[in-house]
Specification:
The chain is an alpha/beta fold. The protein folds into 2 domains: about 20-40 and about 205-290, no CATH class; about 60-205 and about 290-325, Vaccinia Virus protein VP39 (Rossmann fold). It has helices at about 20-30, 45-55, 60-80, 95-105, 120-130, 175-190, 205-210, 220-235, 295-300; strands at about 15, 85-90, 110-115, 135, 140, 160-165, 195-200, 245-250, 255-260, 265-270, 275, 280-290, 305-310, 320-325. Strands 1, 2, 3, 4, 5, 6, 7, 13 and 14 form a 9-stranded mixed β-sheet that branches. It has a 3-stranded antiparallel β-sheet with strand order 8-9-12, covered by helices on one side. A two-stranded antiparallel sheet has the order 10-11. Helix 3 runs parallel beside helix 4. The structure holds S-adenosylmethionine. S-adenosylmethionine binds near residues 97, 115, 116 and 117.
């Protein structure tokens, strides 16, 4: 592990998915009877910036509500995590929420942000290194849905390990995928580890729909950016004006779905492949599952985690769970 001399920032461990993986996922997703694209590819440099803008929208209650919970209960969370902890954050994004925990923790030993969006991760890690100059920060660019190893931290010792998975990003998985992910993190973090997970709660459908289809059109732009990325990186011919962003509530599966709906009959080329669209045909780009507190605790148990505490805001919009390996 090579480190900057002025801060504890280590060199990036770069396991970014290749262009070939991106191409194969897009071709596979657009070839099925119901067209889909994996939501992890929404996050290129531009997509990550758009997501940061979403976090500041009045309709997008999850970010500000989770921050309030983390601010209010940071010391309770720090007590559960323990002193001299090695922290691994999954989908760390702009690295804002971790600051609340780092300030409350007793002598944190190391912070390992894991994110698929490489440039955003590098910039966020550099910002954090300026604020916490004594902390060992070891960024990992990786797809956390595939197995990966954490970097060795030479010269660093720790007494506890904690995972941090805020933003209700766990809601992007189906229930079965979420159980698989949490089972994998148990193995990655090791026995005795704690996991702090932000989970969005089931609520009024109009509040949910507005959060994923804001008045300023930022979420629409975020969703459409995936087509822009395919055009740029894979030689696609999507005309963005011919697709429309839609946020749908799937009551049976208790999730918001984001779709890109074709406004006309059309054909799109990606590299050497042609894909036909009928008018009204949709590409399903993201799921955001919503849970009850008990529903999520049962899911965590199915993945081998023992639920400890749960913290919520007064309106019970959002929850933050502490889990321990059982
Ligand atoms: C909903 S945002 C949440 C960002 C931040 N944690 C927060 O709470 O505001 C999801 C984050 O996870 C990252 N991400 C999404 N899918 C990923 C994957 N499969 N592997 C690694 N990172 C991923 C995105 O780049 C993004 O930073």
């Amino acid at each position: 592990m090579s480190k900057s001399t002025e801060t504890g920032l280590a060199e990036l461990q770069d396991l970014e998915p290749s262009l070939e993986e991106f191409r194969a996922s897009v071709v596979e997703g657009l070839s099925g009877p119901e067209k889909t694209l994996p939501c992890k590819f929404l996050y290129d440099r531009h997509g990550s910036r758009l997501f940061d803008d979403i976090c500041n929208l009045p309709e997008y209650y999850p970010t500000r509500t989770e921050r309030q919970i983390l601010e209010r209960y940071a010391h309770d969370i720090a007590d559960i995590v323990g002193s001299k902890a090695r922290l691994v954050e999954f989908g760390s994004g702009a690295g804002i929420k971790i600051r609340l925990l780092l300030k409350a923790l007793d002598r944190p030993a190391a912070y390992l942000p894991v994110d698929i969006s490489r440039e955003h991760l590098v910039a966020a890690s550099a910002d954090l290194a300026k604020m916490f100059s004594d902390l060992c920060i070891a960024p990992v660019c990786a797809d956390y849905t595939a197995p990966f190893a954490l970097p060795e931290l030479s010269g660093v010792t720790w007494d506890a390990t904690a995972g941090f998975f805020p933003g209700s990003t766990i809601g992007n998985f189906t229930r079965a995928e979420a159980v698989g992910f949490l089972t994998g993190t148990r193995a990655l973090l090791g026995s005795g580890a704690v996991m702090i997970v932000g989970v969005d709660l089931v609520k009024d459908v109009d509040v949910l729909r507005a959060a994923y289809d804001d008045g300023a059109g930022v979420t629409a732009n975020f969703n459409l950016n995936l087509l822009r990325r395919i055009n740029r990186e894979l030689g696609g011919t999507f005309e963005l004006g011919r697709f429309h962003h839609e946020a749908r509530w799937n009551a049976k599966l208790e999730r918001i779905e984001m779709h890109l709906v074709s406004l006309c009959e059309q054909e799109v080329i990606v590299g050497t492949k042609r894909f036909g669209f009928s008018e009204g045909e949709a590409i399903h780009t993201e799921n955001s599952h919503k849970y009850s507190v008990e529903g999520f605790r049962a899911l965590a148990r199915d993945a081998g985690w023992e639920p400890l505490e749960v913290w919520m805001d007064e309106r019970k919009l959002f929850s933050v769970h502490a889990l321990r390996t059982s």
